[in-house]
Amino acid sequence: MLTTRSLAKAGMHLAAAAAFGVAGLTAAAAETKWDMPTPYGDGNFHTQNIAAFAKDVSNKTGGSLNIQIHSAGSLFKHPEIKNAVRKGLAPIGELLVSRLANEDAVFGVDSVPFLASSYDKAWNLYQASKPALEEKLAEQGLQLLYTVPWPPQGIYAKKEVTKADDLKGLKFRAYNAATERLALLADAVPTQIEVPDIPTAFSTGRVEAMITSPSTGANSKAWDFLTHYHDTQAWLPKNMVIVNKGAFDGLSDAEKAAVLEAAAAAETRGWESSKAETKSKTAILVENGITVVEPSAQLLQDLAAIGETMAADWQEKAGDTGTAILDAYKAN
Ligand code: PCA
Questions:
Q1: Alpha carbon distance 328, 332 (integer Å)
Q2: What superfamily does domain 154-234+290-331 belong to in CATH?
Q3: Which CATH number does 32-103+117-150+238-282 carry?
Q4: Which of 173, 213, 238 for mutating ligand 1's site (highest number of atoms within 8 Å of CB)?
Q5: Whole-number Å distance between alpha carbons of 93 and 239
Q6: Quick one: pLDDT band at residue 332, thresholds 50, 70, 90?
Q7: When you count CB atoms within 10 A of the terminal residue's CB, does the N or C end of the chain come out lower?
Q8: How far apart are CA 117 and CA 57, in angstroms?
Q9: Residue 215 CA: which ligand 1 atom is closest?
Q10: Is the CB of 81 inside a 6 Å radius of any atom of ligand 1?
Q11: Closest ligand 1 atom to the C-alpha of 176?
Q12: From the CB of 96, is ligand 1 less than 6 Å away?
């Protein structure tokens, strides 16, 4: 006779098990575990928000769906996360939206310099671009659960930068196509480095300047290898949490509702905590000796010129979809 244990071992379908009248199997077999790769460390506010999201999902489903977070690129590295979720190697994952800008310009809209450089504008740009973003993801069997922006992006260097020319020749850390392009337009030399690798990249001299948030600067202990932070507020790039559509469709209706509710809550919470993060991490930079600089008029002017070039490039690549996004954004 088949025992409960051997049934479970055989991976027998729940309905078949139920037909055998095996008591006690239902609860155990209905438990789903989702591995969730993320690129950033446990101390990061995005990861903390995801931890709250996972807890929320577990609570709302009475423990039938459990999300296990694998932070800092430990399960899949950042550049692999999207395809891992697309292929179902991981049912759910987090990544920077603009990492996919080389696939389609739609993914790069939040990294066009100065297009949306406050939280309100970033939110409006998100709303304007969301239908296109969702459509592009759906083409790959991916569903968007939520996004959360990083704090506004500023320039870190080992000296005060008063004009774009001061960046000339510097080895510049990049994290997506836009930061690479910005570096090139400033005659700097870009190198892609993931966040967990920042401290080593600076201490070994692979890079000597970067553009990122107060959050990433503080979490990387920028004061160990940099001296100045220029609060340029160039853009607010977003992270997104995506799910494999097949994995989502395989959930019960109650589980689907729980995931969507927890995602909506995570989005609201994340946008708020990003604002708080901007203040608290800027203060931590100051406390640790980083000089926080209001950018000079010249630097802003130079960056605006670079931004215009990048906006024109973007619009050309994004075509009619891009025009529609910009029209919807400007109508707000
Ligand atoms: N931190 C991430 C993306 C933007 C940010 O603020 C990084 O530096 O890679």
A1: 7
A2: Bacterial extracellular solute-binding protein, family 7 (3.40.190.170)
A3: 3.40.190.170
A4: 213
A5: 10
A6: confident
A7: N
A8: 32
A9: 6
A10: no
A11: 9
A12: yes
* Ligand 1 centroid – CA 97 distance (Å): 11
- Find, among 156, 162, 157, the residue nearest to 295 by Cα: 162
- 135 and 119 in contact (C-beta within 8 Å)? no
* Ligand 1 pocket residue status of 154, Cβ below 6 Å: no
DSSP codes joined into one string, 187-246 = T-EEEE--GGGHHHHHHTTS-SEEEE-HHHHHHTTGGGT--EEE-------EEEEEEEHH
Specify the higher pLDDT residue, 7 or 327.
327
CATH 3.40.190.170 residue spans of the chain: 32-103+117-150+238-282, 154-234+290-331
CA of residue 301 to ligand 1 center, whole Å:
23
Mutate to test the pocket of ligand 1, among 192, 216, 281 (most ligand atoms within 8 A of CB): 216
Query: What are 49-105's pLDDT values in tens digits?
Result: 999 999 999 999 999 999 999 999 999 999 999 999 999 999 999 999 999 999 999
Give CA separation, 287 vs 155, 210, 227, 280, 290, in Å: 18, 20, 12, 10, 7
Reported pTM: 0.91
> 322 CB less than 6 Å from ligand 1?
no
Q: Is the CB of 196 under 6 A from ligand 1?
A: no
